[in-house]
Amino acid sequence: MISEKKPGKICRYGMAIDIDKCTGCGACVIACAVENNVPPGNEGATDLTGITWLRVFKVDNGEEYPARQAVYFPMMCQQCGVETPCYLVCPQQAVDVDPATGVVGQMPERCLGCRYCMAACPYHSRYFNWWDPKWPAGMEKTLNPDVAPRMRGVVEKCNYCHGRWHAARQRAAEAGLRDIIPGDYAPACVEACPAGAIQFGDLNDPSSAPAKAAKDPESFRLLVKLGTEPKVYYHSKREWARRIGDPSQAPAPKEPARG
Amino acid sequence: MQNTRRNALKFIGGAAAGAVFTPAPWRLITDTALWSENWPGVPRPPRGEISARFTNCSICPAGCGVRARCVGGQPVSLAGVAGHPLSRGGLCAFGVAGHHLPYCPGRLTEGPVEEAAGAIARAAANCNPANAASPLAVCSPGETIAVLDLRPGRTASWTYRRAMGAVKNGLYLTAAEAFSGAAVDLAKARTVVSLGAPVLDGWGTPGNVLAARANFRLIQVEAIESRTASLADLWLRIRPGSASTLVLGIAAAMKKGSVTGAAAATGLTERQITDLADELTQHGPALVLPGYDCPEAWALNQLTGGWGETVVARQEAPVPEHWKNCAPVTRLESAPDGSIRTLIIDESAPGDYIPWNAIRRKLVADNPVVIAFAWSPGGYRRHSLFTLPTAVFPETLEDIPAATDSPAAVFRLAVPLVAAPAGVVNPPEFVAKAVGIDASNALRERADAIQKAGRGVLIAYADGRYTPAGQVRPDDFWKALNQGACWMDSEGRRTAPPAADFAAGDAPPADDARLPLVAVLAETAAATAPPSPLMSKLHRESNLRLGRSRAALHPGTARACGAGDGGRAVLETSLGKCEIEVVVDSSVPPGVVQVAAAPEVIDICGASARARVAPL
Fold it and tell me: In angstroms, what separates the C-alpha of B419 from chain A's closest C-alpha?
């Protein structure tokens, strides 16, 4: 559903990810799971059934040594700005596009678990809770009180750390401001990246990193040909990496060995 | 419409059918779903006052600055300290989830404390030739009691040295590394040649490495396509186990000698080896970093001109004068075989894991007493007579010595953020008490000695303020360290560390028809302690990292072994076998099994070994 228009500045939050800087360390993946109370994988969880709101993929150029090169792609919800597929197919109105932020949110308490949204998402960025959320004894004390754990049978996804956004709004309100204090809100993955590869900002602000990335010829978005206007911009100086991310840029390279 | 029973029924039926096409049933479903949010299977996050506390991560020797977000005093998330002079705001995946460690399944909280204390006290009293005739003696003449310290340089290490100094036949042992008392300065390096060191994957202080990365050209020499190899400016793929031969080859090339033998052994061309030598000498300052299997590669820095510039001697943080009357540092390999009657191993602070067979041969043959301090199962607990439980980050109060990539000495504390469970022991205090010395206040004594020396600055994390140590009162110095701070020594004149030898490294594993594969360790940066349960996100939930008990094989090799992706198999070497899960990965060279480092794997593989994989 489309939320009621909120007062204050209208933002269009997006990300700029420099994959040449990413080392694939996984700090962003873990910080995301910690922030959003994603439980450790059930014993039977695999890469198909686990929950990783943010996942880092290793992609290579398909060449053999010594021409072989690889990059790491952090992949989260790409926050489609137009014709958001998951939003369009949800029969339960459990997907929300916030007009104040442009963030595509998920309301698990409304979700029926039909997984139409997972089928519709071109980025495979939605995850289904196949098991009850369980933490080892005592570890539930470390849960973030700003985020409710989800139950078995519902879909969840990245929402640019909505709890942090709320907290930043609250701090702004306490300071007597209508809008978030610049720099006071950033998702956990942005904060955690030790290489500074992930940057976050308002695409409506020309000075923000994502807005600059949007104009950079070495930047690209994934599956842009679908016309869903994703708000995550990737950047690489390596042409083969750009072509894998956005095949419309040039002829396709050799098939990657894995990805 | 007449009020007949038939019409009433028609109205009710029509209303019921029409209701299906209204929002009402959907609303009912939504509300039903809402109830399920509070079902007992979903835990409720605790509430409380939100605060920020600062500490230093002691999970690995990097000791990154940590800002903990706490709810009601309980840390719920960890992040780096922005502006930290060493970690530069960075925190690795293991550090980000460090506050989960106390809740790891299998955490040790109970152990035979009395029995172990008695064993140490008896050994300390009797490991003395004068008492050899006593019927209570547990040591024969020439036998020793020893402490094996896996992370030397701590205040705890000094306590062990003092304790062993107080015992007649006491030995203080460290890992058999060829290089100590020195540091590297990445900021000065323009060319870095890594012989398998995981430079971009947890080596040194990750934040510092990444900050310096743009300024140096990285050449990774490694048998497998590790994370660092795939991100390096140049990756040279060598044969597994041939790094030591390459070191000698590079040294020969620098002296214009022959590299034919090195080329044949490593699989590189002669041109590649001479180019590598040229790169080191002509594009300096250069730095050579050894990997797990070739510690002698440090010595190459003496030939490149980096000795004293990119590799420097580092002063140790001051210690109280009266501590210096203690046992000397002895390398494990220097201890005579069959000489240690009682061995105490401290693996409460993870460090280098030494294969058990290298330790075993130092022990006496008949009934040696091995006491391990550990917080998790695995590790040396499998080989010890007594295992005593210890606290783990962030329960411990301990100091973290300077990391490899810090040219200046530092002193910082891992401050407890949560209380340790009842029943755990403090290893250095336990050993000190057992041999009759008092070390209960060692950290405070060390801090006072540092403050008294008046060198360096104190960096407070809360406000980022730098204060000369000499201008801070001793109590305030100690208080600041406990609130999250770091003392950093002032950098004096750069000096070269003591000369290092090109000691002959391990030879490549010989061909063995029964063991057709070569096992190569991966993920060595996180070899010892088990990580947070949340690391499943990086392992089996995304396959980003190999993860414990998993081994990667080339598709062709896996087929030849009869192993399938995700299948269970046995990894066997000449030293033993362990169970693994097979991951098929085309980036692994044929004939190689890339196995995630873990104690049980290191015990049977070492750095590299001939192996075979057989499906279960």
Answer: 13
